[in-house]
Amino acid sequence: MPRLMTAPHPLLVALNDAQRAAVSAPLAPTLVLAGAGSGKTRVLTHRAAWLIEEQGVAPQGLLAVTFTNKAASEMRGRIESLLHMPSGALWIGTFHGIAHRLLRRHWRESGLPQHFQILDDDDQQRLVRKLLKEQNLDEQRWVPREVQGFINREKDEGRRPKHLQDRGDPTRRELIRLYDLYQRRCDQLGVVDFAELLLRSYEVIRDQPQLADFYRHRFRHVLVDEFQDTNSVQYDWIKLVCGKSGTPFVVGDDDQSIYRWRGARVENMQHFRRDFGATVFKLEQNYRSTGVILGAANEVIRRNEDRLGKELWTEAAGGEPIRLYAAFNERDEADFVIERIREHARSGRPLAAAAVLYRSNAQSRSFEEALMAARIPYRVYGGLRFFERAEIKDALAYLRLTQNRSDDVSFERVVNLPTRGIGQSTLDRLRETARAGGTSLWNAAQALLPVLPARAATALNGFIGLIDRLASGIGGLELHEQVRRVIEDSGLREHHAKEKDTRGEARVENLDELVNAAEGFTPEVEDELPLLASFLAHATLESGETQAAEGRDCVQLMTLHSAKGLEFPTVFMVGMEEGLFPSERSVFDPEKLPEERRLCYVGITRAMQRLYLSHAESRRIYGRTEYRAPSRFLAELPAALVEEVRPRLSVSRPLYDPSTRHGGPRRHTAGPEVATAVAPARRQAAKGEELPIRLGARVRHPKFGEGVVLRYEGNGDTQQVQVNFENAGQKWLMYAYAKLEAV
After folding, report:
1. Which of 22, 145, 419, 722 is 20 to 30 Å from 60 by CA-CA measure?
2. Is 122 exposed, middle or buried (0-12, 13-18, 19+ CB in 10 A)?
3. pTM of the model
C-alpha cells in the first residue's frame, strides 16, 4: 500500500514544479510533453523510482522502454542510484531488446527454434542478395538495399505479405512475392531480422490470450521514452501490452520527431492522447540554452501546424546574438567556421565544445579539407561502429556457427575466410543443393563431400572439421576465453597480422578488443540463455547504435539527424539554403516540410551558448556551380535576435511568409529590421553579371504554370535557370527563351 506523505518526498526535492507534477501524477495514462533540454530522462527515472518507493509498485511490475542500449543503461543506472538498490528485477531495455527477451522466453509459441539467431543489417542484405540470385533477378533492377527496405517498412507497419495488395503495379507485386520468399527462408533457417523481433513479439502476444493476460497483469506500469520516435508496430505493441487496465507513462516531444524516413510516426502522440484519454503535462523550462537561442527555436517551430504546443523558456535570459554569415561559396563558408573555431580555441575553449551540423553527409568534405589544412583534429560523428567492423563480424560469424550450424549467413561469410581454397563454383553447388533439398548450407556441404573434386572436398571438409573442433574446444571455458580461442584457432588473428599496412594492426587490435568486450559482458538478470548465446545476441542488438566521439579533444562534424540528443556550447549550422535545407524533395510536400522544420528546431536547440548560421551564395554540387536562395528558416528567425557577421549593402531579400498564397516568397526592401533577419538573395552570376530574376522569386511560365526560382547556372545567352513548378516539378530552362514572368 502507498504510504501517506507527511512531507515533500526526497525524490521530488530536486525537481522543478512541472517535473514534480509529472513524476507524482495519479496512476493513470500520462503523456509528458518534454521540450528540448527540459529534463525528460530525469522525469522518467524519477517516475519509476516514485512508483516503487512511494506507490508501493513491485519492481517486477515495471516495464521501461527506450530506443538505444546506451539510453537504457543510463536509465537503469539512474534508477539504481535513486533507489539505492539493484534494478535487476525491472525490465528496462530497447524495444528490440525487450522483444528479443520475450521471444527467447516464448520461442515455442513464436514458432522459432530455441537458439534462433538475429540478422543484423548487413546479414539481412546478404540474405536478400542470395534470394535475388536464386530467383535470377538482376540486382541492377532489383536493388538489394531497396528490397530490404520494402520488407522492413512493411514489417514496421505490422503488415505481412498476405496483408498487401499490389494495386495493379507489377513492381509492387514482385516486391510482395520477394517479401514472402524472404520470410519463408528466414523461418526455414530459424533467423529473425530487427523488424521481425518487434512484429513477431507483437503477434505472439496478440494471438496468445493467456500471454497477453499474463503480461498485462505483470506490467501494470509501462514507461516509454522518446515516444515521438515510435513507429506503427511499436505503438500497437504498447497498446497491446497495456490493454485497458495498464497505466502507460510516456515522454516525448512532437517538435523533435525527425525520423519519419525510418518509420517514426509523430501522430502517435496525438493518437495516444486520444486512445488512452491521457493527461498531458508539459516540461517547458530549458536547462541547456540561452534565452536568445530558445527564442529563435520557438519562433521557427511555431510555423508547424498540428503541434501539441509548448514554449521553451529559461531563467538564463539573454545571451549572445545568433550570428549569420552569408558566404561566397562553400570554401568561404568552411574558412569562416574554421576561423571562429580558432578564435574559440585561442580563448581557451576545448575543440570538442564546437560542432558543425549539416543536412547532408556530402557537405562534410569542404569542412574536413579545411580542418585538415588547418591541422585541427576533428571527428565525423557516427562513423563505423565497433560491432559493424568487418573483422568483428567475421569473428562473430565463427562463434555463431559453433552454436548453430544452420546459420547460412554466417556460413557464407567465413567459409573461405581466411582463404582455404573454396571457390565460387563450389559455393554455387552448395547453394543449389541446399535450395533443392530445403536444407542448410552446412547439411548440403556434408552431402556433397563424396561427389566434389578432391581439392574442393578437402578444403570444405577442413572447414567443417574446424567448426566442430571450435565448438568442442570452447566448452567449459569462460566467455572471453571462448572468444579468444575462436579468434586464434580460426586463423583470423594471424590472417590480419600478416597485412603489411596499419589496417592489419588496427584489425588485430579490434579483435583483441572483442575479447575484452566478452570479458566485461554481463547478461540481463533474467536472461536464461547460455552466456555465449547471450553475448552474440547482445552484439547484434548493439550494432547500428551511434558511438560518442572518442576521447581526443576534437571538433565534431555530424548531420543534424546525428546531433539529436547531444548538446554543445558552440554550434555551427551550415548550408542553410533552399533546396539543401529544406531539401528539394520537401519544399512542396506537406508531410516532409514540417519535419524539415522540426530538424531545424533540433539543430538550434543543440546550442548551449553560441549559435552560428551560414549559407553560401554559390555552391559546387555534382560538378557544377549552383546559386541558391537562403533557407526559408532564416527568414523565420526574430530579427532582433540575429546579427550578420558580414553585412551587405545593396540587398533585396526574399522572405518566406506563410500568410501568402502557397507559402511563396514575398519581397522586402532591405531595412534595419530586415538586414539582420536573413542574408541577401541577390547573386552575381559568372563574370559579374547580375541574375535577371532574384533567387526565391515566384514566376509564371506559359506552359508549366507557377513556380519558384531555385538556382542559376552559366551566364549570357547560355544562362540556365532552375524552377520548381507546382504542377510540373523541377525544370532547367534556357533563361533567354523561357519567357518567365515575375508573379
Report:
1. 22
2. middle
3. 0.73
Structural domains of the chain in order of their starting residue, each with its CATH number: 10-107+198-285 (3.40.50.300), 117-189 (1.10.10.160), 386-520 (1.10.486.10), 689-743 (2.30.30)
Residues 6+ apart with CB under 8 A from 657: 663, 665, 666
Q: Note the pLDDT tens digit of each residue in 717-728.
A: 667 788 888 777
Pairwise CA distance, residues 484 & 519, whole Å = 10
256 given a catalytic annotation: yes
Positive or negative, the CA dihedral 49, 55, 56, 60 is: negative
Active-site residue flag, 114: no
* Residue among 19, 30, 45, 256 flagged as catalytic: 256
Average pLDDT, the chain: 84
Query: pLDDT tens digit string along 226-265?
Result: 999 999 999 999 999 999 888 999 999 999 988 888 888 9
Predicted local confidence at residue 515, as pLDDT: 84
Q: Is 40 a catalytic residue?
A: yes
334: nearest Cα among 568, 549, 575: 575
Distance (Å, rounded) from C-alpha 396 to C-alpha 513?
Answer: 13
Cα separation values, 679 from 328, 576, 644, Å? 11, 10, 8
Distance CA 298, CA 636 (A): 10
Instruction: Single out the catalytic residue among 123, 196, 226, 412.
Output: 226
**What is the distance between the alpha carbons of residues 636 and 601, in angstroms, rounded to a whole number?**
11
Query: What is d(CA 197, CA 107) in angstroms, rounded to the nearest whole number?
Result: 12
Q: Name the active-site residue from 41, 55, 279, 625.
A: 41
Sign of the torsion formed by the C-alpha atoms of 409, 415, 418 and 422 = negative
Catalytic one of 123, 225, 408, 595: 225
- Sign of the four-CA dihedral 136, 139, 140, 145: positive
Whether 47 is a known active-site residue: answer: no
Q: Which three cell numbers stand for residue 387?
A: 560491432
Q: What is the pLDDT of residues 604-644, one digit of tens each?
A: 999 999 999 999 988 765 445 678 889 999 999 999 999 99
Q: What is the mean pLDDT of residues 118-147?
A: 89
> Which pLDDT score, from 0 to 100, does residue 684 have?
35
Active-site pick, 101, 323, 389, 606: 606
Angstrom distance (rounded) from CA 199 to CA 157: 9
* 205: nearest Cα among 195, 216, 196: 216
Is 385 assigned a catalytic role?
A: no
